[in-house]
Write a structure and sequence with these properties.
Layout (H helix, E strand, L loop, with lengths): L1 H20 L3 E5 L3 E3 L4 E7 L4 E4 L6 E16 L2 E14 L3 E5 L3 E4 L2 E4 L3 E6 L11 H8 E7 L10 E9 L4 E9 L6 E5 L8 E5 L2 E15 L3 E5 L3 E13 L5 E11 L3 E5 L15 E10 L3 E2 L5 E11 L15 E3 L3 E9 L2 E14 L3 E5 L3 E6 L4 E6 L3 E5 L49 H29 L1 H22 L4 H20 L8 H10 L4 H17 L6 H21 L2
Parallel strand pairs: 2-10, 21-28, 22-30
Antiparallel strand pairs: 1-3, 3-6, 4-8, 5-6, 7-10, 8-9, 11-12, 12-16, 13-18, 14-16, 15-16, 17-20, 18-19, 21-23, 23-26, 24-26, 25-26, 27-30, 28-29
Keywords: Membrane, Signal, Transmembrane, Transmembrane helix
Protein name: BatD family protein
InterPro entries: BatD (IPR025738)
Length: 589
Amino acid sequence: MNFIKHTYLIFLLLASSIVAAQVKFESKVSKKQLGVNERLRIDFEMNQDGDNFNPPSFNGFNVVGGPSQSVKNSWINGVRTYSKTYTYFLAPKTRGNFTISQASITIDGEVYKTTPVKIVVTAPVDKPKDPNDPNYIASENIHLVAEVSNRSPYLNEAITVVYKLYVSPNTGVDNWREIDTPRYNDFWSQNIDMKGQKVQNGTYKGEDYRYLILRKTVLYPQKTGKLNIEPLTLDISVQVPTNRRDIFGSRLMSRVHKTVSAGNVSINVKALPEAGKPVDFNGAVGDFKFKVSTSKTELDATESLQAKVEVRGKGNLKLFKLPKLSLPSSLEVYEPEHNESVRTNLDGMQGSISDAYTVVPQYKGKYPIPSISFSYFDLKTESYKRLSSDEIVIDVLDGPLNSSDSNNALSSNTKQRVVLNNDQFAFIKTKTSFTAIKSSNFFKTNVFWTLLLSPFLAIPLAIFIRRKKADRDADVYGNRIRKADRLARKYLKSAKKALGKKEAFYIALEKALHNYLKAKLHIETSDLSKDKIQSLLGEKGVQADVIESFNGILESCELARYTPIDIVTMQDDYDKAAKTISLIDKQAR
């Protein structure tokens, strides 16, 4: 009887451990029926960490908040409980029956999906307006607004988004934190420094309010059509008055947490007109001046001068390429040095960009630098304009004459008579002399003995290699590290193939860096924080500048997805990543 009892207990323990080890990935909603004027919260929760989370499309809803991510770790009686959640806040677009489709995630190489959720959206419902409810008071007295300067700009025309937090006079704000920061997809973006901002007085919907400017951002749209500016979402600690009073008659305040969102903003980006577009137009939009200049126009051969191509003015200065100089072949020209002196404020980019060429003439003569042109779209007149430089002649006063290059040197146009020499074919030999080639036997040569003894020498080498392979196969821990290293190299290879495709390149590069760290430091994806990386690499003896370089590459991967990047910058980031991984391998103990 005791045997049966013990067997039953063991069976229960095994069954409970198997259930506990199962992966759970499910979706939870705050309600399955709501009014069209209400908000829906949906959580995607898992009990193990995963990668490549893909949310559903949320057809029939607008995403007004999220995704926000939270992780919970707890230890109870030596048992670890883990939970990771992605949270979204949705607003219905219209009434009807909707289905929130499956979300997916990869956990330990397996793909898991949630169960679809059916939602019923009804007519607007009357929300309780209890004047004694602090949450209702907070919702009526605090507002977050996104003010857009222009909702119908041209492609590459600057617009500004100013986020203002309006608070009624009888309401207080202790602090706030950003739950969801806007990601300006399809825009080049630049945040304006907001230090020293003060609370100002203003009006909101005709009523007196105080407001604070939280964020100013300059955007340059990179695509035409309808583009979406994601909302800024804040969690605010609010103090609101109640109907209760203290013993002195003063109104008591109640503290609540309120989530506010600026809401999605749509803009319609107009394409630049095709009529009158110059052939050499490369995307410059704004108001510019164009100049080509040289540091000197007279010099001796082998001396150097600087030829400078400069665009100055207001517009998308960092988002187009300067025209190239066309110089005579008799002038030695080095790769230009690119310089930018650009500042960004609420009016957009202003300043200048330039390419400085170092030119070294080799021969005496006069060499023209032909006129080149620069085209841009003028926003004031809504038309294309072309600016052309003047022709510049470089006079090389002293140096050897270039008799073979009469096209470039204006002064070398004199022809010389060719004089024939009777001995001009004297270098050709008309007699031959043969010498005998000594023959040697292959037998007993070095090559013969090498081929003869090689099989016998290969036997101990094969035994040694086989033993090493057996030791390597038995090293489970080392094999796991090598496998992860191969995975990192695989992603680096994918990143190299994706050069020129910004999003695919930086996604592959970021995955390579993450998998390399997981192999090197033995940590999970959820532990990949900047401080954790710095601490663990420091413990392994990696130098501080190498750690900083690694974190810098990770930050570049995140930022580069939302800013214009050319292939040269991508190649630099790839080389920097490969070099940094190599340095960590050499330094880590």
